[in-house]
Each structure stands twice: as structure tokens, then as C-alpha cells.
Amino acid sequence: MKLVVAVVQDKDAGRLIEELVDRGYRATKLASTGGFLKEGNTTLLVGAEDAQVDEVVAIIKRVCRPREQVVTPLGPIGGAVDTYVPYPVEVIVGGATIFVLNVERFEHV
Ligand code: 2BA
């Protein structure tokens, strides 16, 4: 068995859960925060048999799309703020960041 951990954008999370559950997968949705943008995102945990992992990943790839986001970096902490000119930087967020982990033991009681 595997555990698929997927960090996705909030905008894609609802539809992704629906698609997974419609196909008989079980999923848990966690509210998370990206370390770089410090904005909310969603982490999904999906327990699946080894043979199902490719389909789970394919569903995630189909539903989650990359989006461009503009970030304005904060000024340097304790630095010379009067000479610091912040300018927006574009980053591409997602589709999804996916980890597939081996599950040593699974019990559902
Ligand atoms: P954030 O950490 O908020 O990152 C959002 C986006 O900012 C990233 O999109 C990437 O385009 C950019 N970014 C992140 N760190 C950067 C850096 N040091 N320099 C320049 N740009 C940077 P994604 O790569 O699609 O990541 C989306 C979210 O997935 C991340 O949100 C984070 O929550 C998670 N994530 C990505 N890689 C991860 C990893 N190796 N381990 C754990 N979580 C990860």
C-alpha cells in the first residue's frame, strides 16, 4: 500500500476530492500553508493500493493546473529600508506537489 501526499492549490482541492471519491478512493483534506508564499494551500492524503497509485496521480495531474502568482518580497529584516525597492516577482504555483510513500502497516478499525 502507498500513501499519496499531494500539496495542491485551494482552488483545485474541492474538485479533486470529488473526482477521487467518485472513483472510490478515500481521501483526507488538510489545511496547510506554503513555506515560500505563506499562503493557504491544501494537502491531501490518499491511501491506495500500489496498482492504483498511477491512476491517483493521473487524476491529480488532470485536475490541478499551474497558475501564475505575483509575490512582492518583504524588505530585509533590520536592513536599510530606505534604499530597498520591493518589486513583484512572478512564480508558477502547482499543478501539484506529489509525494508517494510506502505504507509499512495500515489498519482501519
Ligand atoms: P510555497 O512554499 O508557498 O511555494 C509556492 C511557489 O513558490 C512554488 O510553487 C514555487 O513556484 C515558488 N517557490 C517556492 N520556494 C521557492 C524558492 N525557494 N525560490 C523561488 N521560488 C520558490 P510549487 O513548487 O508548485 O509549490 C507549491 C506548494 O507545494 C509550496 O508552497 C509548498 O507548500 C509545497 N511544496 C513544494 N515543494 C515542496 C517540498 N519539496 N516539500 C514540501 N512541500 C513542498
Automatic annotation (TrEMBL):
Pfam name, any one: CdAMP_rec
SUPFAM superfamilies: GlnB-like (SSF54913)
Coiled-coil boundaries: none
Top-level taxon of origin: Bacteria
Gene3D superfamilies: 3.30.70.120
Protein name (record): Nitrogen regulatory protein PII
Source organism: Thermaerobacter subterraneus DSM 13965
